[in-house]
Design brief:
alpha/beta, UDP-glucose 6-dehydrogenase, NAD, 45% helix, five-stranded parallel beta sheet, 6-PGluconate_DH-like_C_sf, 436 residues, EC 1.1.1.22, oxidoreductase, six-stranded parallel beta sheet
Length: 436
């Protein structure tokens, strides 16, 4: 990998760490910041922030002649092959994102490139809401991007304060956003930021940063709600969570992290409800738990709205149980969908190979008798009858071979894919996903 000269705009947390770590890899660094004090610190090899190992990295870079800083954007661009934009994106009073610093820097870099005519690579690293990079490019760089004078990537950072240098050296996640979601035209983003990056469109890369932080916030909120409940019970919440985290197959995993079906089954809805009514009865405020069922209901409403918007009353369900390879109908979102459609006079056909009504017993049978007593008349032994007899198919389980479907599907039919069965997209019907 050839060493590059890199300008870093914004010498705050992310910028300073990025500078120190890139210098360690042998690149030449030009820092750029509007604050003279930060520029002066950099020029003497002193870190503007406190972070383990960073002082040493910057001092070494200074000693070896690979570190300088300036308040002039034009100078920084003139002396570098690539610019990494790390300026702050603070919140406005309204809670909205303030992109003024990013806009200012973008404008200055674009002007410098127009005047010099040099080719350049720009990596946006500042946290920005989805759509922001595209807006910056449209407002400042579009002509330069089209002619190939500038290549622009969005590369979110996942540095934790206190372990930022270590996190830079071994990224937990590497993401490169390109304008069309295709592989980058050149290697700079990968060379500079390391890891094995996932490549998405700019908006997807921007969304990943927010998804991670939203999830981390949810985890903290969740652990604290468990802590409040434990405290009330006289139990040690930290110990309870330690034991919960000892299960790395389900609890620290990607198992439940797939957009699709609302949650269902005989456990999750019932247990969430029970815990919620216990907390309410005892007067413990747990807003996350409060809203867990609501968000699930909202997701189910979206699915039903999607189905009813299609304008046909002949609907086929592939899969009725709450997940594949089980005959459990309790709390199944698909049963709720079927119930709603029947209530509105839709003509339903259902195929679910795991379902044998004569074998349903106990609570499972009781629930179906209560909610859909005439289920037997809707079930078909053969998936073909369901597909051929319906105009709209709701696919919640991979319970039919794609090659069989290919023989039955026609252009007049449409399908809603609930759980990400992507082969359905290749068939000649009109395809829509629930979350994609």
């Amino acid at each position: 990998m050839h060493d590059m000269n890199v300008s870093i705009f914004g010498l705050g947390y992310v910028g300073a760490v990025t500078a120190g770590c890139l210098a360690e890899l042998g690149h030449g660094i030009i820092g750029a910041d509007v604050q003279q004090a930060k520029v002066d610190a950099f020029n003497t090899g002193v870190s503007p922030i406190i972070e383990p190992e960073l002082d040493g990295l910057l001092q070494t870079a200074k000693r070896e002649g690979r570190l300088s800083a300036t308040t002039s954007a034009a100078e920084a661009v003139a002396n570098s092959d690539a610019s990494i934009i790390c300026v702050g994106t603070p919140s406005l009073e309204s809670g909205r994102l303030n992109l003024d610093f990013v806009r200012k820097v973008s404008e200055q870099i674009a002007q410098a490139l127009r005047e010099s005519g040099k080719t350049h690579v720009i990596l946006f690293r500042s946290t920005m809401l989805p759509g922001s990079t595209r807006t910056m490019v449209r407002d400042f760089f579009e002509d330069l991007r089209v002619t190939g004078q500038v290549r622009i990537y969005y590369c979110p950072e996942f540095l934790r304060e206190g372990t930022a240098v270590k996190d830079f050296r071994e990224p937990s996640l590497a993401v490169v956003g390109t304008h069309d979601g295709l592989e980058p035209e050149s290697e700079e983003a990968r060379q500079l930021l390391g890891g094995t990056p996932a490549v998405l469109a700019w908006e997807g890369a921007e969304m990943i940063k927010y998804s991670c932080n939203y999830f981390h916030a949810l985890k903290v909120g969740f652990a604290n709600e468990i802590g409040r409940l434990c405290k009330f019970l006289g139990e040690d919440g930290a110990r309870v969570m330690d034991v919960v985290c000892a299960d790395t197959r389900l609890n620290i995993s990607k198992y439940y992290m797939k957009p699709g079906n609302p949650f269902g089954g005989s456990c999750l809805p019932k247990d969430v409800s029970a815990l919620l009514s216990f907390a309410r009865q005892e007067g413990i405020s747990l807003p996350l738990l409060d809203n867990t069922l609501d968000t699930n209901h909202a997701h189910l409403d979206l699915l039903i709205k999607l189905i009813t918007s299609k304008g046909t009353r002949k609907v086929g369900l592939l899969g009725l149980a709450f997940k594949a390879d089980t005959d459990d109908l309790r709390g199944s979102p698909m049963v709720a969908v079927a119930e709603t459609l029947l209530g509105r006079g839709y003509e339903l056909r259902i195929y679910d190979p795991s379902l044998n009504l004569s074998r349903l017993i106990g609570a499972n049978e009781a629930e179906i008798q209560r909610r859909m007593p005439h289920l037997a008349s809707l079930l078909r032994e053969d998936a073909r009858e369901v597909v051929e007899g319906s105009e709209l198919i709701i696919a919640s389980q991979k319970c039919v071979k794609p090659e069989d479907l290919a023989a039955w599907v026609t252009a007049e039919k449409s399908v809603i894919d609930v759980n990400g069965w992507r082969e359905l997209k290749t068939l000649p019907w009109s395809y829509e996903g629930l979350c994609w």
